[in-house]
Amino acid sequence: MIKKFTSGNPIDTQAVVEKFNALPIAEFPLGGKFENGNFVFEFDMADSDIVYGLGEAPRGINKRGWVYNSFCSDDPFHTETKSSLYAAHNFLMLSGSKTFGIFIDFPSKIRWDIGYTTANKTVITIDGTDFDIYYIDGTKPLEIVKEFRKSIGTSYVPPFWAFGYQQSRWSYHNAEAVDAVVDGYNKAGIPLDCVYLDIDYMERYKDFTVDDEKFPNFKDYVSKKREEGIHLIPIIDAGVKKENGYDIYEEGRKNGYFCKNEDGTDFEGGVWPGIVGFPDFLRPDVRKWFGSKYKILTDMGIDGFWNDMNEPAIFYSVKGLNKALDKAASLKGQNLDLSKFFELKDTFAGLSNSPEDYSSIYHTVDGKQVCHDQVHNIYGANMTKAAGEYFAEKFGKEKILMFSRASYVGAHRSSGIWFGDNHSWWSHILLDLKMLPSANMCGFLYCGADLGGFNENATRDLVLRFLALGVFTPLMRNHAALGTRNQECYSFENSDDFKDIVEVRYRLIPYLYRTFKKASEENDMIFRPLSFDYPDDKIARECETQLMLGDECMICPVYEQNVGGRYVYLPENMTFVKLSGTSITTEKMSKGTHYIEVALNEVPLFIKDGRQIELCKPAMRTSQLDTTDTVMIP
């Protein structure tokens, strides 16, 4: 069912764990040709064909009509105009007149023109000549996904408590701020399992340090929170602060563990702490070294982490900043006309994540010097692999929560992902929904968006509607940016509405956890497009605002402001269920289109005829749930 086609000498990304005999690229079923150092191939699409895949990507479930780029990008503005986000998930599948999947195992840039230039043609351009392409033949989309997932290995399963509700913000900067969050949830009676520590918990933004003034006796504090049923989840960034006497930086510099310039000196870029070194995570010895540093925090009782800034995000390079400052100095005192002013402005705007900087970074791969451009998309995945390898060795499976911002296929075996720095926009409820099945196709089961939106100020109704979708996502985390409105559930008026929503999550955890484990063990999807289940139903095939959940359910979030419900399409007879706190209402509905009313404190879902799901009683912590005492609905 899967055939592997190889060109040149590909870098081993370790995305695929099954062994396949390599066939020459000349035998690739979709043809292709080499042009100017690239490999280009294409396929035609019928009007009714659907193109799925690309994991974490902008736009819809059906990828037609746009051009995408595989290039892990630190870009917080997730608009329809973007072509890439934080991940590179190079799996694509055509369904319709023909049905097949492809996975391009290539860690550099790929351009996917899916009916953008020519409406009924997909043109794929690989920016290089050394790559593997896996061609997956089949008749049904789900069987292709399962075959692909089998080839890339079993998906990561987090600890049970990681299915609880999680609260984050940039930043709960000290112990008093964390205590206030836990106290706020406790007083409101809203369940909570995790509180996040963003960059301000560190000593001057140095990885694997804790600011003793902000968090005195941190180990005891972590233990105290654990006794309260609360897990503290600190952030770890890719860049290691350049500071004499900082042991991790000194070790990295002494042992040559940081990425290099072409001349062999350490590449230096600026991020939160100022100038940093970037560990060369593509080297096994560097991964082992960096992974072992998580012990500093696990020894203090920490059992969950989120890896960030690992595309890698670079605010500036030392070389780039000096050039920009020299440019500004040369223009001082001049009367800047239109062109000179915008040239200066663009000089500074272009400092962050500069292509020129990426091209100047070098790694060591199998003893050879390799330009970062050639391996950009696996940098963050290898940071997460460093942690995952250490956790697997020291703790075994399902003990440590780990998820990452940047990712590549293969990282799903040791980590989940979140969908990055989204906005408090109503459109981002749907963006979250649409990325869920695509991420599942690529093995990432533990995933979710920043509920309520990270950037900008959230409204009360937006957070409630966002949470009503987040009730179903394995990662249910509310996260907001520095300077934005507080969006903790207890911070809004009438917090009982939020309690009603979050309690639904805790009631659903036995079902969600069972569904998650099954999907991991059987290479299945938690979330599916309706078209997977109803391939001959035209309305279902085109539906992008509803998803199938597990073997039993269909979810349909409300995603517009100032409405009391939405229209929903039922591809078969189903039972409409509304959940709110401990309240359950059910109504049998026939196949077709219906308008459903959904209050702000209600969670809607539909259950197939003849199917049931289990609900337990809510509790303030996952550790307090009695998962053996359940009721079945409908």
TrEMBL record:
InterPro entries: Gal_mutarotase_sf_dom (IPR011013), GH (IPR017853), Glyco_hydro_31_AS (IPR030458), Glyco_hydro_31_C (IPR048395), Glyco_hydro_31_N_dom (IPR025887), Glyco_hydro_31_TIM (IPR000322). Residues 39-113 form the Glycoside hydrolase family 31 N-terminal domain. Residues 156-514 form the Glycoside hydrolase family 31 TIM barrel domain. Keywords: Glycosidase, Hydrolase. Gene3D superfamilies: 2.60.40.4040, Glycosidases, glycosyl hydrolase (family 31). It is an enzyme of class 3 (hydrolase). SUPFAM superfamilies: (Trans)glycosidases, Galactose mutarotase-like, Glycosyl hydrolase domain. Residues 525-611 form the Glycosyl hydrolase family 31 C-terminal domain. Its EC number is 3.2.1.177. It holds the Pfam family Gal_mutarotas_2. The keyword Hydrolase applies. One of its GO terms (biological process) is carbohydrate metabolic process. Belongs to the glycosyl hydrolase 31 family. This is Alpha-xylosidase. The gene is yicI.
